[in-house]
Write a structure and sequence with these properties.
Layout: H1 27-37, H2 39-47, H3 49-64, E1 69-73, H4 75-92, E2 99-103, H5 121-130, E3 138-142, H6 149-160, E4 164-169, E5 182-185, H7 200-219, H8 236-250, H9 254-263, H10 268-277, H11 281-290, H12 295-300
Parallel strand pairs: 1-2, 1-3, 3-4, 4-5
Helix pairs in contact: 2-7, 3-7, 4-7, 5-6, 8-9, 8-10, 9-10, 10-11
Length: 302
């Protein structure tokens, strides 16, 4: 791991010459500069497309085998991992333990800075021990500057336990090395506000996590076409979304869609399969199970 004394040479710590007069810009000029600099986030994602795809397949394979996905980080990086993990259950109806975000300092660090804890590599390893990380799991270490000992400690221990590991950083490999199985490097250049990695680095990290989790869930059959057919119907908004999906895909009126959804046990996938194949709920659930939850495969099998 890169010695922390070299942080000033890291890409994320360099001074951006384009924003040298940041405090003198008009408000509109400030917004325009942010917009121009954020183009770098799209380019960074494009540059890591192969690594992102490899990570998606790795995650999906692990989850199919009963494994779990862990995001681990400190500060902004860790908070983004927690956010992505927290969004998976309502979006894809996954159990909370399937995708987990681990933040240095725990839940309290979500709202109160505890960046000092990122310097303890053994704490990262301890987080892996606490969750009994093993051969079927995937651990994604997130660290904008790449040097966070907490993340490196977690990845090192996870590898020892046979887990697959992914390293996400906004610095090139020649600045900070990693022993992870997959490295996703997202160099977005120096920040507009020097060293504030919650800006471009945070944006590109969020984009990468969106791609990883959504891509893996698509591979796991949580999506039909571009619809969230595994949505958890837990409130009025999500009920409306579920009914709208059923209506769009079956041409049923809302009342009929409501009856179908209720008969399916509030599962959009089961409801659609019941309607398309004219089978009851038990049969539809069995067919889906035989096809590993893949609605398209279930329909094609009949």
């Amino acid at each position: 791991m890169e010695n922390l004394s070299t942080r000033g040479h890291l890409l994320t710590e360099q001074v951006n010459i384009n924003s040298a007069n940041l405090d003198r810009l008009s408000t509109l000029e400030l917004v325009d500069l942010f917009n121009k600099e954020d183009i770098n986030t799209l380019n960074a994602i494009a540059g890591a497309r192969v690594e992102l795809a490899t990570a998606i397949d790795t995650i999906a394979d692990a989850l199919r085998q009963g494994g779990r996905l862990f995001y681990i980080g400190a500060g902004t990086s860790g908070r983004l991992g927690v956010l992505d993990a927290a969004e998976c259950p309502p979006t894809f109806c996954t159990p909370p333990e399937l995708v987990q975000g681990i933040l240095a300092g725990g839940a309290g660090a979500l709202i109160k800075s505890s960046e000092g804890l990122e310097d303890i590599a053994s704490d990262g390893a301890a987080a892996m021990v606490e969750r009994n990380v093993g051969v079927h799991d995937v651990v994604v270490g997130i660290t904008a500057g790449g040097t966070t000992p907490y993340v490196h400690g977690a990845i090192e221990y996870a590898k020892q336990r046979g887990a697959k590991t992914v390293f996400i950083a906004c610095v090139p490999a020649n600045q900070v090395a990693s022993i992870a199985d997959i490295e996703i490097r997202l160099p977005v250049g120096a920040e507009i506000l020097s060293g504030s990695t919650r800006l471009k680095s945070g944006t590109v990290t969020k984009m990468a996590l969106n791609i990883l989790s959504t891509g893996a869930m698509v591979k796991l059959g949580k999506v039909y076409g571009n619809r969230m057919v595994d949505v958890a119907v837990t409130n009025t908004k999500l009920l409306d979304r579920a009914l709208q999906m059923i209506q769009d895909l079956t041409q049923l009126e809302r009342d009929a869609a409501q009856e179908l959804l209720t008969a399916s046990g509030k599962s959009v996938k089961v409801a659609l399969l019941m309607h398309w194949t004219k089978v009851d709920r038990a049969k539809a659930e069995a067919i889906l199970a035989q096809n590993h939850g893949q609605l398209r495969s279930a329909v094609d099998s009949l």
